[in-house]
Specification:
Number of helices: 11
Shape: globular
Radius of gyration: 23 Å
Mean pLDDT: 84
Low-confidence stretches: 1-24, 340-359
Length: about 450
């Protein structure tokens, strides 16, 4: 399932499964605002034998103007589906049967008029995901975007019960009519709202020297604000390249400023200082100001914003360690563009080496989230365990609650997870777990 987008699903920042109540007797309104599509499902969809889910995939790459959403099918009854997801333990056969029941009905791509479907196709091809253009159909235009229906995913229905295979084919056949009748509009991007926002704060650099945002940003035409953490290996790995970029852009009246987001923690600050020293970084690295939560939206690391001399955010941030995209973005802003012209090559960073890698304890879910459950050997939930959760280019941090749970709401794809720091009294666990597709992971910590 989802073969075409298996790799690039991790490049977009937000996705959620949508469950929308019926708006009329036999229809259901489904809104994919992140794709810019609102559809009406007919009775055949609302009363399907199988379970139908829909989700926004978000933007592909950074500042590309390419968005997508998808509608999927699970070849089991609602009762079977509910019974499966509510189980606590699964056999290998049950998990295999679940994955064998999944299929794709259709996808919708939204492509900005500043780009083209050919550029999107080339982008996917450069990342190893071929998009068969013969399976693309233009279905609408609105607000500077063109919308395309894609029905090129090769579904394997050999393990389906005959009645579900037949229904899947019927539902796929109805997709063009559903999408063609949809309402189209500009995709709602959560980062659009920050463009033009003025950053005003006082803080210190990592060595304790006072920093005022007005003076910090006023020194250069464009400042690249790279937000990182002491535990994010992608952030750390790109630092030597950031130092080289900082030297090259100095002649353009531009500079890089790092923001160590967890630098308000003494231990993280010391770690961060060591990272900066080891990477040979000479550009300014600041600590988070008190009003950090009001200033910027940062959900993954690294996240890179671009700011003008007045302290105003110039465009949407670049998410993940996309070194090839930084200088084209700067050149675009210097040229007066609201967004960089160059398209990112995609994530190329590799997941850091781990002591061991395991898929044990991972069970699929259909909740549209990744959930990490941490307990001790007696089954007692472990609170305040710090969980590092990474795609192939960026990392997030979660902390388990009183039930031992940490949840990550991200696009579906392949991620790695491990316990970055165990609470006091528990032994260190260096195991890295792989999670492919929305799933739950159970980790058991031993007492120290």
């Amino acid at each position: 399932m989802k073969k075409v987008l298996a790799m690039i699903l991790t490049l977009a920042m937000f996705a959620s499964l949508l469950a929308v109540p019926a708006m009329a007797d036999d229809t259901q309104t489904v809104e994919l605002s992140g794709t810019g599509v609102t559809m009406e499902y007919p009775k055949s969809y609302t009363e399907a034998m199988g379970v139908i889910t829909s989700s926004d995939g978000g933007e592909l790459g950074s500042n590309t103007g390419w968005y997508y959403g998808e509608v999927d099918y699970i070849a089991m009854s609602r009762d079977e589906y509910d019974a499966f997801i509510n189980k606590n333990d699964y056999t290998e056969e049950e998990i295999e049967n679940y994955y064998n029941s999944m299929a794709n009905l259709f996808m919708v791509f939204a492509v900005s008029d500043k780009s083209s479907i050919d550029e999107l196709t080339a982008f996917l091809a450069s990342n190893g995901s071929k998009l068969d253009t013969s399976k693309l159909t233009k279905v609408g235009e609105a607000d500077g975007f063109s919308f395309y229906l894609f029905q090129g995913v090769e579904n394997d229905t050999t393990k389906f019960r005959p009645e579900y295979a037949e229904e899947l084919n019927n539902l796929i056949a109805q997709a063009p009519e559903i999408v063609s009748a949809a309402k189209f509009y500009a995709p709602v991007d959560p980062y659009e709202a920050v463009i033009g926002k003025k950053l005003s704060f006082k803080t210190t650099d990592i060595n304790g020297n006072p920093v005022d945002s007005e003076e910090l940003f006023g020194q250069h035409e464009v400042t690249m604000l790279n937000v990182w953490t002491s535990w994010c290996h992608f952030c750390i790995e790109e630092m030597p390249e950031l130092e080289a970029i900082n030297g090259r852009i100095a002649g353009k009246d531009c500079a890089i400023v790092g923001l160590l987001l967890d630098g308000d923690d003494p231990e993280a600050l010391e770690t961060g200082k060591g990272v900066v020293k080891d990477a040979g970084v000479t550009y300014t690295v600041i600590l988070p100001p008190e009003n950090m939560d009001e200033l910027l939206s940062v959900d993954s690391f690294p996240t890179t914003y671009f700011v003008n001399r007045n302290g105003e955010i110039l465009g949407k941030p670049i998410l993940g360690a996309d070194v090839a995209a930084y200088e084209p973005a700067i050149d675009g802003y210097l040229a007066g563009s609201s967004a960089p012209e160059a398209k990112p090559a995609g994530a190329t960073a590799e997941v850091g080496a781990a002591k061991s890698v395991s898929d044990n304890g991972v069970t699929p879910n259909n909740e549209g989230v990744y959930r990490i459950h941490v307990s001790d050997e007696s089954g007692k939930p472990v609170e305040k365990a710090r969980i590092q959760f990474c795609s192939d280019s960026e990392c997030m941090l979660g902390v388990t609650d009183e039930t031992g749970l940490a949840t990550f709401e991200v696009p579906e794809g392949t991620y790695t997870a491990h316990v970055l720091k165990a609470p006091e009294g528990y032994a260190k666990d260096d195991t890295t777990y792989t999670m492919t597709g929305y799933s739950d992971l159970s980790i058991v910590l031993k007492l120290a």
